[in-house]
Amino acid sequence: MANKITIIGAGQVGSSIAYALCLKGVATEIVLIDIDAKRAMGEAMDIRQGTPYMSPVNIHEGTYEDAKGSNIVIVTSGAARKPGQTRLDLAQTNVNIFKSIIPQITRVAPDAIYVLVANPVDILTYQLAKTSSIPVNRIIGTGTLLDTARLRTKIADEYGIGQANLHAYVFGEHGDSSFVPWSMVNIASVPVDDYNHAVGNKHEPLDKAAVEEYVRKSGAIIIDAKRCTNYAIGVTTARLCEMIKNNNPSVTIVSTMLNGEYGISDVCLSIPTVVGGNGVEGRLAPPLADSEVEQLRKSAETLKGIISQLDFN
Questions:
Q1: Are 264 and 296 contacting, i.e. CB atoms less than 8 angstroms apart?
Q2: Beta bridge mates, 191
Q3: 269-293 mean pLDDT
Q4: Predicted pLDDT at 88
Q5: Nearest CA to 257 among 129, 110, 76, 117?
């Protein structure tokens, strides 16, 4: 079955997503669009020359007109976060960039599912929902999907357990107000607080504050070391596209427009969400401790405070 994916932005993140999509065999055609057309050509050519050893895929550079018929559109364009800069510092700059992108891409790909990756991802997801005619169920921000991968990696490393056995999520904003609802974290259905005892106290007690700090600061650490983060978000986004392409609804955690969940509306942030061939097919609101609900509402208010200061027009 044909699956055409357009990626807007052929920088480190966009090209890493394209490469991960090719390795996973998610797309039959990938179009790379960038204001630097030469860069897009070079990235597409480099990846294309490896496709004899992958699933068949036609990857090439293009313009917005070449996005016609796309099943999925991925947006990575925006100014990169600099060392010491928060994601929200980028807000108005990237909102302005997105203003010029939205009418061009939605005109040629009105039926696509849109996956937002550029930061601040929750705000740009909200912007697309509010300023375009794309139905909200077809607008998905990667949100805390990468944060959740970082969380699971860290806990699995601490306990020396396979990551597939671990169930944990990061809720809220993809940023400083995110948090881990520890009441939901379990290893093969055993609450994380009970796991160490169950295996004979072989490990040091889990320092939850240190784990959350690791998750929250990982992006900044990587950016300071190599000036960008690209591999983990590349495969994370490719996995999200895989859920859509396979039309096998799966529970994941992404940023979407909330509509009353936990008493929160009119803001995009991450809670467990069912994603399938139609995009968002449902949002879950699993029971949280009262303190965790308050943390989620605080994250929502943080985002609303930023949104109130931005110009989307």
A1: yes
A2: 186
A3: 97
A4: 65
A5: 129
As a whole number of Å, the end-to-end CA separation of the chain is: 38
Q: What is the largest CA-CA distance in the chain?
A: 61
Quickly count: other Cβ atoms within 10 Å of residue 301's Cβ: 12
Those residues whose C-beta lies under 8 Å from the C-beta of residue 9, and which sit 6 or more positions away, are 33, 34, 75, 76, 77, 78, 118
Give the integer Cα–Cα distance in Å for 121 and 237. 13
In the predicted model, is pLDDT for residue 121 greater than 70?
yes
Ranked by mean pLDDT, the top range of 45-49, 89-93, 161-165 is 45-49
Could you write out the DSSP letters of every residue in 184-208? G-EETTEEHHHHHHHTTS-SPPP-H
pTM given for the model: 0.95
* pLDDT at residue 242, as a whole number: 96
Q: Which of 60, 167, 174, 197 is catalytic?
A: 174
| Secondary structure string (H, E, C) spanning 67-110 | HCCCCEEEECCCCCCCCCCCCHHHHHHHHHHHHHHHHHHHHHCC
CB neighbour class for 5 (10 Å; exposed up to 12, middle 13-18, buried from 19): buried
Closest CA relative to residue 100, chosen from 69, 127, 74 = 127
pLDDT, average across residues 193-203: 90
pLDDT at 16 over 90: yes
Nearest-angstrom CA–CA distance, 271 and 286: 9
Q: Could you give the CA distance from residue 204 to residue 193 in angstroms, rounded to a whole number?
A: 12
% helix, strand, coil for the chain, step of 5: 50, 20, 30
Phi-psi region of 69 (alpha: psi -120 to 50; beta: other; left: phi over 0): left
Is 183 in contact with 214 (CB distance < 8 Å)? no
- What residues contact residue 189 under an 8 Å CB cut-off, 6+ apart? none
| C-alpha dihedral (227, 271, 309, 138), degrees to nearest 10 | 90
174 is annotated as an active-site residue: yes
| Residues in the chain, overall count | 313
